[in-house]
Amino acid sequence: MDNLLKQRLLRNMFVDKVRNQMEIDEAEYQELIEILSNLSGELKFRKVIDKELALLLYSMSQIIRNVFLTYEEHHGKATEFGNKLEDIWIDLDAMVLECFIDTN
Length: 104
Known about the structure:
Structural class: mainly alpha
Low-confidence stretches: none
Radius of gyration: 14 Å
């Protein structure tokens, strides 16, 4: 099951669209949230996590964080897009942490 979730995660373009186009695709984001929720549940029963999956999980929220910091630096604080990026970064970070914490 987690291999299928990994493939879905690799195909999800949310982070790439934010990084390359400065676009928040809500449909891709909702799919990403669903994948991470399912993955967290699946990893509860695993003692080891795939290295590629771990790298992918770790880098997602960091990429969004970097885009947020760069955007904030160039556009100032409290813009709607900047606030949305910050919320997404915090949410993704928490969800990824759940994937790692649940791994025994």
